[in-house]
């Protein structure tokens, strides 16, 4: 039986919380690659998750298969599940493959964050790695979560020449540890130094 769309969205959000950030809420552990046993996870979510409905294995299968961002994946034998990226929990320290990204990549943010980005660059903060996208549309959607969107371009070619390393998650998201501000420009080509000089016009 197909899971109701609203219920599926709630399950997806709760799985993101548990598998990326706070597995301790339902008293599960994640291995270094982010995996946890599905049967244990289901049992603990239904026991400790305080949700107004029970989650079944069939519902988990649907959420994993239908998630538009492919946030989750099963192990090869189907007994374990993980979030593929976006972790902040110290339990996880994933080994992503090193890859060469296209140039440029994009990052969507909100206007109010630009002054800090101009000073600090892009940093993971609570997440382990900075998330970047090949897709303008994806970057716009990410930035829109926080306010009026500002798109930033990342000069990956220059970063690679300067020794920075990029990784790619299974769902196509590009990852790196940090992007200093000198490798960033606004979508129309302005440098972020203009922000610090109060010359950036919104």
From TrEMBL:
Keyword NAD: yes
Transferase is among the record's keywords: yes
SUPFAM superfamilies associated with the record: ADP-ribosylation
Any one Pfam family match given in the protein's UniProt record, by short name: PTS_2-RNA
EC number of this enzyme: 2.7.1.-
Gene Ontology MF, one: tRNA 2'-phosphotransferase activity
Keywords assigned by UniProt, alphabetized: NAD, Transferase
The protein's role, per its UniProt record: Removes the 2'-phosphate from RNA via an intermediate in which the phosphate is ADP-ribosylated by NAD followed by a presumed transesterification to release the RNA and generate ADP-ribose 1''-2''-cyclic phosphate (APPR>P). May function as an ADP-ribosylase.
Protein name, entry field: Probable RNA 2'-phosphotransferase
Record organism: Moraxella lacunata
Gene: kptA
